[in-house]
Amino acid sequence: MAMNLTPLAKPVFKHRVKKIAKYAVEAESIQRSVLKRLITGASGTEWGVKHGYSSINAYEQFAKSVAVQDYESLKGYIDRMRRGEKDVLWRGRCKWYAKSSGTTNDKSKFIPVTPEGLQRAHYKGGFDVVAQYVANNPQSRIFSGKGLILGGSHASNYNLPGSLVGDLSAILIENCSPFVNFMRVPGKDIALLSDFEEKMDKIARATCNLNVTNLSGVPSWMMAVLKHMLDITGKQGVEELWPNLEVFFHGGVAFTPYREQYLQLIRKPDMKYMETYNASEGFFGIQNDPSDPAMLLMIDYDIFYEFIPFEEFDSPNPRVLPLWEVEVGKNYAMLISTSCGLWRYMIGDTVRFTSKDPYKIVITGRTKHFINAFGEELMVDNAEKGLKQACEATGAQVLEYTAAPVFMDANAQCRHQWLIEFAKEPDTLEHFTDVLDTALQQINSDYEAKRYKNKTMQKLEIEVARKNLFNDWLKSKGKLGGQHKVPRLSNSRQYIEELMLLNREK
């Protein structure tokens, strides 16, 4: 029997879980003190001097002094930081940059990752995930074996000594503590390979005979690794390789489309799944209750949150609310200020609050990833729920998908067009289409109004994608593996046209 270090770690985790419990009653004061710490930390920087940080004592002053930012407005500062300048957006020199293409723009973003951001957001988040998991599962033996962590790759930044640019996961692996290094597989030499297909094969061969108790990574890429592992070992299920596997910590993309396939890949009735909300810009949320899909917003990290009501997002002067002024059930675009030098930064995600004591959220989509071509305001979480219903009704499993509007065809008809790669085909495509269209009308009243009597919009249509289409498309853009994801919904037809062209070629 492998040595089990879990009991030794429990008291440390217990202490932290007690602190997190205060979120429910002290949220405003916790967030105000986070902001104070951030402003103090940056008061001597170029940005801090420019915005009068040394005389800001309260949130209300901060909101007046600093405008809402996006990547474009900070890009000039970040590029100077990348070239080695210090005290620009945050104190000191920043050596690490998470390269994030997002999905909306082919141009890469370089998000600064400072030592403070690393410790007080990213690693703190990783620690808290395990703390919450162990609190919910007292019988856990998570530290009796290894954790398989999927990482991306990194490269030198402008050839500056010790300065790296790459996937956040690669920066985390490069800088993690000796304990985490001891507990994770594979070794750095494999974990940081840049060719995903080579890496997948080497991970599978290096880890298939080890005692793996937990998995961390993006569901789509982890699934590719696990399937490859079963292919090369000839096993039927992952539990045959790793009988002590107990939990998959996942994030990066919504889990709903993959859930059914994971149940078939890992046939353990007691297998646990826990969602996290982390990105290149920070670590934001943890699913602390297995029975509730919403995630606890982590409010005592080096991250101060603000929110723009989604309906005001495109207006010239939208309202910006601190955490303590949000309402349950509404959609918001999220802004963050962090010790990585992002100030009132628009992260590009939309969230909906499900609770305020403590503050819990579900991710509803991206500020640019929704379809609102005809006033239907279809969000990604609508799409996920609709697909789930269609899969349940028709026995299908969806691997990947994207959707876009058809503005007007030859018959002056408008509709949504979906391109779906099935892991398991539905009983009939017609049945699947009907259920999905009906479900979206039930879920989204704007969609229903536009579909009324087919006046504004016709019934959606579905094109079936060939096997591996989406992976081939990502590969053609040099974006296989790591943090890259398929754009789910778009007002533009750019992605779907590229994909459909590729679909017809083979």
What does this structure look like?
The protein has helices at 6-21, 23-42, 46-50, 59-65, 71-82, 115-136, 168-175, 178-183, 188-191, 196-207, 219-233, 238-241, 256-265, 380-394, 429-443, 445-451, 469-476, 494-505; strands at residues 96-100, 109-113, 146-149, 154-156, 164-166, 184-185, 212-217, 247-250, 272-279, 282-286, 295-297, 303-309, 321-322, 331-338, 345-356, 359-366, 397-406, 415-424, 461-464. The mean pLDDT is 91. It has three domains: 6-91 and 302-366, no CATH class; 117-279, Rossmann fold (3-Layer(aba) Sandwich); 380-505, GMP Synthetase, Chain A, domain 3 (2-Layer Sandwich), CATH 3.30.300. The strands form three sheets. The protein has a twelve-stranded mixed beta sheet with strand order 6-3-7-8-9-10-11-16-15-14-12-13, with helices on both faces. Strands 2-1-5-4 form a four-stranded mixed beta sheet. 45% of the residues are buried. With 506 residues, it is of the alpha/beta class.
